[in-house]
Design goal:
14% strand, 355 residues, TIM Barrel, 8 strands, binds zinc ion, alpha/beta
Length: 355
Protein backbone atom coordinates (compact mmCIF):
# COMPACT_ATOMS: atom_id res chain seq x y z
CA UNK A 1 0.00 0.00 0.00
CA UNK A 2 1.12 3.55 -0.68
CA UNK A 3 1.83 5.51 2.52
CA UNK A 4 0.26 8.96 2.92
CA UNK A 5 3.65 10.65 2.86
CA UNK A 6 4.11 9.28 -0.65
CA UNK A 7 0.78 10.58 -1.86
CA UNK A 8 1.86 13.95 -0.49
CA UNK A 9 5.12 13.88 -2.45
CA UNK A 10 3.46 12.63 -5.61
CA UNK A 11 2.97 15.34 -8.25
CA UNK A 12 -0.74 15.89 -8.75
CA UNK A 13 -3.18 17.59 -11.09
CA UNK A 14 -6.31 19.23 -9.67
CA UNK A 15 -9.20 19.94 -12.04
CA UNK A 16 -12.02 20.42 -9.57
CA UNK A 17 -11.38 22.71 -6.63
CA UNK A 18 -13.54 25.68 -5.67
CA UNK A 19 -11.73 28.64 -4.19
CA UNK A 20 -14.83 29.18 -2.00
CA UNK A 21 -14.16 25.77 -0.44
CA UNK A 22 -10.39 26.08 -0.35
CA UNK A 23 -9.85 28.99 2.03
CA UNK A 24 -8.00 28.60 5.29
CA UNK A 25 -10.33 28.44 8.28
CA UNK A 26 -7.92 30.50 10.35
CA UNK A 27 -7.94 33.27 7.76
CA UNK A 28 -11.74 33.34 7.69
CA UNK A 29 -11.77 33.48 11.48
CA UNK A 30 -9.50 36.53 11.37
CA UNK A 31 -11.81 38.16 8.82
CA UNK A 32 -14.76 37.40 11.10
CA UNK A 33 -12.94 38.98 14.04
CA UNK A 34 -12.15 42.05 11.98
CA UNK A 35 -15.86 42.45 11.18
CA UNK A 36 -16.87 41.43 14.72
CA UNK A 37 -19.20 38.73 13.44
CA UNK A 38 -20.03 37.35 16.88
CA UNK A 39 -22.71 35.00 15.52
CA UNK A 40 -19.84 32.93 14.09
CA UNK A 41 -18.00 32.55 17.42
CA UNK A 42 -14.69 33.82 16.09
CA UNK A 43 -13.31 34.08 19.63
CA UNK A 44 -13.32 30.31 19.85
CA UNK A 45 -11.40 28.49 17.06
CA UNK A 46 -13.10 25.13 17.67
CA UNK A 47 -16.56 26.65 17.57
CA UNK A 48 -15.72 28.73 14.53
CA UNK A 49 -14.63 25.62 12.64
CA UNK A 50 -18.10 24.18 13.02
CA UNK A 51 -19.49 27.01 10.92
CA UNK A 52 -17.17 26.48 7.97
CA UNK A 53 -16.07 22.84 8.03
CA UNK A 54 -17.78 19.45 8.02
CA UNK A 55 -17.15 17.49 11.20
CA UNK A 56 -16.81 13.72 11.41
CA UNK A 57 -20.23 13.23 12.94
CA UNK A 58 -22.11 15.76 10.87
CA UNK A 59 -25.01 14.61 8.74
CA UNK A 60 -24.22 13.55 5.19
CA UNK A 61 -26.34 15.89 3.17
CA UNK A 62 -25.81 18.10 0.13
CA UNK A 63 -27.75 21.11 1.38
CA UNK A 64 -25.94 20.96 4.72
CA UNK A 65 -22.64 20.79 2.83
CA UNK A 66 -23.65 23.77 0.70
CA UNK A 67 -24.52 25.73 3.86
CA UNK A 68 -20.77 25.97 4.61
CA UNK A 69 -20.29 28.34 1.67
CA UNK A 70 -20.72 31.52 3.67
CA UNK A 71 -19.96 34.85 1.99
CA UNK A 72 -20.05 37.39 4.83
CA UNK A 73 -16.33 37.45 5.65
CA UNK A 74 -14.81 39.91 3.24
CA UNK A 75 -14.24 43.56 4.09
CA UNK A 76 -12.01 44.53 1.21
CA UNK A 77 -10.48 43.35 -2.04
CA UNK A 78 -7.30 42.66 -0.05
CA UNK A 79 -9.22 39.92 1.78
CA UNK A 80 -10.21 38.40 -1.55
CA UNK A 81 -6.62 38.60 -2.77
CA UNK A 82 -5.40 36.90 0.39
CA UNK A 83 -7.61 33.82 0.09
CA UNK A 84 -6.67 33.38 -3.57
CA UNK A 85 -2.97 33.63 -2.74
CA UNK A 86 -3.22 31.17 0.14
CA UNK A 87 -5.20 28.67 -1.90
CA UNK A 88 -2.40 28.50 -4.48
CA UNK A 89 0.17 28.33 -1.71
CA UNK A 90 -1.65 25.37 -0.10
CA UNK A 91 -1.98 23.55 -3.41
CA UNK A 92 1.71 24.11 -4.21
CA UNK A 93 2.73 22.76 -0.81
CA UNK A 94 0.64 19.66 -1.50
CA UNK A 95 2.62 19.15 -4.72
CA UNK A 96 -0.17 20.11 -7.06
CA UNK A 97 1.56 20.86 -10.36
CA UNK A 98 -1.45 22.19 -12.17
CA UNK A 99 -4.50 23.71 -10.51
CA UNK A 100 -7.66 24.73 -12.35
CA UNK A 101 -9.05 27.08 -9.76
CA UNK A 102 -12.75 27.61 -10.14
CA UNK A 103 -14.48 30.47 -8.41
CA UNK A 104 -17.65 32.46 -8.53
CA UNK A 105 -16.89 36.22 -8.42
CA UNK A 106 -20.43 36.68 -7.09
CA UNK A 107 -19.50 34.92 -3.85
CA UNK A 108 -16.81 37.50 -3.08
CA UNK A 109 -18.65 40.51 -4.50
CA UNK A 110 -22.17 40.12 -3.17
CA UNK A 111 -22.07 41.52 0.39
CA UNK A 112 -19.99 44.61 -0.44
CA UNK A 113 -21.29 44.93 -3.97
CA UNK A 114 -17.76 44.94 -5.34
CA UNK A 115 -17.57 45.09 -9.12
CA UNK A 116 -17.61 41.50 -10.39
CA UNK A 117 -14.89 42.04 -12.96
CA UNK A 118 -12.65 43.69 -10.37
CA UNK A 119 -13.12 40.73 -8.04
CA UNK A 120 -12.27 38.34 -10.84
CA UNK A 121 -9.11 40.24 -11.68
CA UNK A 122 -8.15 40.42 -8.02
CA UNK A 123 -8.39 36.64 -7.65
CA UNK A 124 -6.48 35.95 -10.83
CA UNK A 125 -3.71 38.46 -10.21
CA UNK A 126 -3.22 37.34 -6.64
CA UNK A 127 -3.10 33.67 -7.65
CA UNK A 128 -0.52 34.63 -10.26
CA UNK A 129 1.62 36.25 -7.55
CA UNK A 130 1.59 33.03 -5.54
CA UNK A 131 2.41 31.08 -8.66
CA UNK A 132 5.48 33.26 -9.17
CA UNK A 133 6.69 32.41 -5.70
CA UNK A 134 5.93 28.66 -5.89
CA UNK A 135 7.33 28.07 -9.31
CA UNK A 136 6.28 24.44 -9.55
CA UNK A 137 2.58 25.14 -9.84
CA UNK A 138 0.66 26.39 -12.84
CA UNK A 139 -2.78 27.87 -12.23
CA UNK A 140 -5.65 28.42 -14.64
CA UNK A 141 -9.14 29.66 -13.89
CA UNK A 142 -12.78 28.76 -14.39
CA UNK A 143 -15.78 30.93 -13.61
CA UNK A 144 -18.36 29.05 -11.60
CA UNK A 145 -22.00 30.02 -12.06
CA UNK A 146 -24.63 28.97 -9.57
CA UNK A 147 -27.84 27.29 -10.75
CA UNK A 148 -29.92 28.46 -7.81
CA UNK A 149 -28.40 31.77 -6.89
CA UNK A 150 -27.83 33.46 -10.24
CA UNK A 151 -30.33 34.37 -12.90
CA UNK A 152 -29.67 33.83 -16.60
CA UNK A 153 -29.09 37.59 -16.82
CA UNK A 154 -26.42 37.37 -14.10
CA UNK A 155 -24.81 34.51 -15.99
CA UNK A 156 -24.79 36.45 -19.24
CA UNK A 157 -23.21 39.37 -17.46
CA UNK A 158 -20.45 37.11 -16.11
CA UNK A 159 -20.01 35.57 -19.54
CA UNK A 160 -19.55 39.06 -21.04
CA UNK A 161 -16.87 39.74 -18.42
CA UNK A 162 -15.20 36.44 -19.22
CA UNK A 163 -15.16 37.24 -22.94
CA UNK A 164 -13.82 40.75 -22.43
CA UNK A 165 -10.98 39.59 -20.18
CA UNK A 166 -7.62 39.97 -21.71
CA UNK A 167 -5.97 38.07 -18.88
CA UNK A 168 -4.48 34.84 -20.05
CA UNK A 169 -5.68 31.96 -17.95
CA UNK A 170 -9.48 32.06 -17.82
CA UNK A 171 -10.24 28.87 -19.69
CA UNK A 172 -13.53 27.39 -18.54
CA UNK A 173 -17.09 27.87 -17.34
CA UNK A 174 -18.59 25.71 -14.60
CA UNK A 175 -22.18 25.29 -13.44
CA UNK A 176 -22.62 24.38 -9.78
CA UNK A 177 -25.30 24.44 -7.07
CA UNK A 178 -28.56 22.68 -6.43
CA UNK A 179 -29.24 20.36 -9.38
CA UNK A 180 -32.45 19.02 -7.82
CA UNK A 181 -34.41 22.24 -7.94
CA UNK A 182 -32.65 23.90 -10.87
CA UNK A 183 -32.47 21.37 -13.72
CA UNK A 184 -30.08 21.79 -16.64
CA UNK A 185 -32.76 22.45 -19.22
CA UNK A 186 -33.40 25.98 -18.01
CA UNK A 187 -29.80 26.98 -18.84
CA UNK A 188 -29.90 25.52 -22.35
CA UNK A 189 -29.89 28.83 -24.28
CA UNK A 190 -27.12 30.27 -22.16
CA UNK A 191 -24.79 27.31 -22.59
CA UNK A 192 -25.50 27.26 -26.31
CA UNK A 193 -23.95 30.74 -26.39
CA UNK A 194 -20.96 29.55 -24.37
CA UNK A 195 -20.52 26.60 -26.69
CA UNK A 196 -20.92 28.68 -29.86
CA UNK A 197 -18.35 31.21 -28.67
CA UNK A 198 -15.83 28.37 -28.52
CA UNK A 199 -13.65 30.23 -26.03
CA UNK A 200 -14.12 28.13 -22.91
CA UNK A 201 -14.30 24.54 -21.80
CA UNK A 202 -17.60 23.57 -20.17
CA UNK A 203 -17.91 21.56 -16.99
CA UNK A 204 -21.22 20.89 -15.29
CA UNK A 205 -21.90 19.59 -11.79
CA UNK A 206 -24.30 16.74 -12.46
CA UNK A 207 -25.29 13.33 -11.17
CA UNK A 208 -23.88 14.18 -7.76
CA UNK A 209 -26.93 13.57 -5.61
CA UNK A 210 -29.43 13.33 -8.49
CA UNK A 211 -29.97 10.47 -10.97
CA UNK A 212 -28.48 9.77 -14.42
CA UNK A 213 -30.97 12.04 -16.24
CA UNK A 214 -29.12 15.02 -14.79
CA UNK A 215 -25.91 13.90 -16.51
CA UNK A 216 -27.74 13.20 -19.79
CA UNK A 217 -29.17 16.73 -19.62
CA UNK A 218 -25.77 18.26 -18.85
CA UNK A 219 -24.38 16.55 -21.94
CA UNK A 220 -27.26 17.16 -24.33
CA UNK A 221 -28.51 20.56 -23.23
CA UNK A 222 -25.37 22.16 -21.79
CA UNK A 223 -22.63 20.63 -23.97
CA UNK A 224 -20.56 19.44 -21.02
CA UNK A 225 -16.98 18.49 -21.87
CA UNK A 226 -16.56 17.34 -18.30
CA UNK A 227 -18.96 16.36 -15.55
CA UNK A 228 -18.38 17.40 -11.96
CA UNK A 229 -18.93 14.24 -9.88
CA UNK A 230 -21.18 12.17 -12.17
CA UNK A 231 -21.60 9.51 -9.50
CA UNK A 232 -24.95 8.62 -11.11
CA UNK A 233 -23.22 7.50 -14.32
CA UNK A 234 -22.65 4.17 -12.57
CA UNK A 235 -26.42 3.64 -12.36
CA UNK A 236 -27.13 3.74 -16.10
CA UNK A 237 -25.33 1.33 -18.42
CA UNK A 238 -26.25 3.32 -21.55
CA UNK A 239 -24.92 6.50 -20.02
CA UNK A 240 -21.75 4.76 -18.84
CA UNK A 241 -21.11 3.54 -22.41
CA UNK A 242 -21.92 6.97 -23.83
CA UNK A 243 -19.47 8.67 -21.47
CA UNK A 244 -16.74 6.20 -22.45
CA UNK A 245 -17.48 6.44 -26.16
CA UNK A 246 -17.57 10.24 -26.23
CA UNK A 247 -14.63 10.59 -23.87
CA UNK A 248 -16.51 12.74 -21.39
CA UNK A 249 -14.37 13.24 -18.31
CA UNK A 250 -15.69 12.62 -14.83
CA UNK A 251 -14.20 14.85 -12.14
CA UNK A 252 -14.45 12.53 -9.18
CA UNK A 253 -14.25 13.69 -5.56
CA UNK A 254 -14.21 11.04 -2.81
CA UNK A 255 -14.52 12.78 0.56
CA UNK A 256 -16.87 15.36 -0.86
CA UNK A 257 -19.21 12.64 -2.16
CA UNK A 258 -19.21 10.98 1.23
CA UNK A 259 -19.98 14.21 3.06
CA UNK A 260 -22.79 15.24 0.71
CA UNK A 261 -24.37 11.80 0.91
CA UNK A 262 -23.75 11.16 -2.82
CA UNK A 263 -22.30 7.80 -1.72
CA UNK A 264 -23.02 5.85 1.47
CA UNK A 265 -19.36 4.96 2.02
CA UNK A 266 -16.05 5.14 0.20
CA UNK A 267 -15.97 1.36 -0.34
CA UNK A 268 -18.99 1.57 -2.65
CA UNK A 269 -17.83 4.71 -4.48
CA UNK A 270 -17.95 4.05 -8.25
CA UNK A 271 -14.52 5.58 -8.89
CA UNK A 272 -12.70 2.24 -9.49
CA UNK A 273 -15.57 1.07 -11.70
CA UNK A 274 -15.15 4.19 -13.85
CA UNK A 275 -11.38 4.06 -13.87
CA UNK A 276 -11.14 0.39 -14.80
CA UNK A 277 -14.16 0.61 -17.13
CA UNK A 278 -12.57 3.00 -19.59
CA UNK A 279 -13.99 6.33 -18.36
CA UNK A 280 -11.59 9.25 -18.38
CA UNK A 281 -11.82 9.48 -14.60
CA UNK A 282 -9.88 12.03 -12.54
CA UNK A 283 -9.45 12.49 -8.81
CA UNK A 284 -10.08 15.86 -7.13
CA UNK A 285 -10.85 17.46 -3.78
CA UNK A 286 -13.80 19.77 -4.57
CA UNK A 287 -13.62 21.80 -1.33
CA UNK A 288 -10.60 20.76 0.73
CA UNK A 289 -10.96 23.18 3.64
CA UNK A 290 -14.67 22.53 4.15
CA UNK A 291 -13.93 18.79 4.00
CA UNK A 292 -10.82 19.11 6.21
CA UNK A 293 -8.68 17.23 3.71
CA UNK A 294 -5.95 17.72 1.13
CA UNK A 295 -5.71 16.13 -2.30
CA UNK A 296 -3.01 13.85 -0.85
CA UNK A 297 -5.52 12.65 1.74
CA UNK A 298 -8.01 11.69 -0.96
CA UNK A 299 -5.22 9.91 -2.85
CA UNK A 300 -4.34 7.99 0.32
CA UNK A 301 -8.00 7.02 0.73
CA UNK A 302 -8.08 5.80 -2.89
CA UNK A 303 -4.84 3.87 -2.41
CA UNK A 304 -6.15 2.16 0.69
CA UNK A 305 -9.73 1.51 -0.38
CA UNK A 306 -9.30 0.71 -4.07
CA UNK A 307 -5.79 -0.76 -3.86
CA UNK A 308 -4.51 1.69 -6.44
CA UNK A 309 -0.84 1.46 -7.34
CA UNK A 310 1.60 4.23 -8.12
CA UNK A 311 1.03 3.47 -11.82
CA UNK A 312 -2.73 3.91 -11.37
CA UNK A 313 -2.18 7.36 -9.90
CA UNK A 314 0.10 8.27 -12.75
CA UNK A 315 -2.65 7.29 -15.19
CA UNK A 316 -5.30 9.22 -13.22
CA UNK A 317 -3.14 12.32 -13.49
CA UNK A 318 -2.56 11.77 -17.20
CA UNK A 319 -6.35 11.51 -17.54
CA UNK A 320 -6.60 14.89 -15.84
CA UNK A 321 -4.02 16.48 -18.13
CA UNK A 322 -5.89 15.16 -21.15
CA UNK A 323 -9.13 16.65 -19.79
CA UNK A 324 -7.73 20.01 -18.74
CA UNK A 325 -9.03 23.01 -20.65
CA UNK A 326 -5.56 23.92 -21.87
CA UNK A 327 -4.81 24.22 -25.57
CA UNK A 328 -2.98 21.41 -27.33
CA UNK A 329 0.57 22.80 -26.97
CA UNK A 330 0.14 23.72 -23.30
CA UNK A 331 -1.25 20.28 -22.61
CA UNK A 332 1.77 18.65 -24.21
CA UNK A 333 4.09 20.86 -22.16
CA UNK A 334 2.22 20.02 -18.96
CA UNK A 335 2.39 16.32 -19.76
CA UNK A 336 6.13 16.55 -20.24
CA UNK A 337 6.55 18.50 -17.00
CA UNK A 338 4.34 16.03 -15.16
CA UNK A 339 6.13 12.94 -16.40
CA UNK A 340 9.49 14.42 -15.48
CA UNK A 341 8.24 15.30 -11.96
CA UNK A 342 6.74 11.85 -11.63
CA UNK A 343 10.00 10.17 -12.62
CA UNK A 344 11.76 12.23 -9.94
CA UNK A 345 9.16 11.20 -7.41
CA UNK A 346 9.58 7.51 -8.26
CA UNK A 347 13.33 7.85 -7.91
CA UNK A 348 13.03 9.53 -4.54
CA UNK A 349 10.73 6.88 -3.08
CA UNK A 350 12.91 4.06 -4.45
CA UNK A 351 15.90 5.66 -2.72
CA UNK A 352 13.97 5.86 0.57
CA UNK A 353 12.96 2.21 0.25
CA UNK A 354 16.61 1.18 -0.20
CA UNK A 355 17.78 3.32 2.73
ZN1 LIG B 1 -17.74 21.13 -7.05
Amino acid sequence: MIPTKHTQQMPKIELHRHLEGAMRTETLRRFAAKKKLTAYHYQNPAQFRKHVEIGKNDKKDLLFFLSKFINVWYSSLEDVAQVAYESVEDAAKDNVLYYEMRFNPEHYAFVNNFKRDVVARTVIESARKAQKKYKNIDVKFLFTLNRGKQTIRDMEYMFDIAKSFNIDGLIGIDLAGDETNFPAKQFKQFFKKVKDAGLFGITIHAGECVGPFSVWDAIHYLHADRIGHGVAVSKDKKLFDYVVEHDITLEQCLTSNLQTGAVADIETHPFPKFYHGGVNATLNTDDPSIERITLSDDYAIAAKTFKFSIEDFKQINLNAIKASFLGFTDKEKLKERYLSAFAQFEKSIAKKRRA
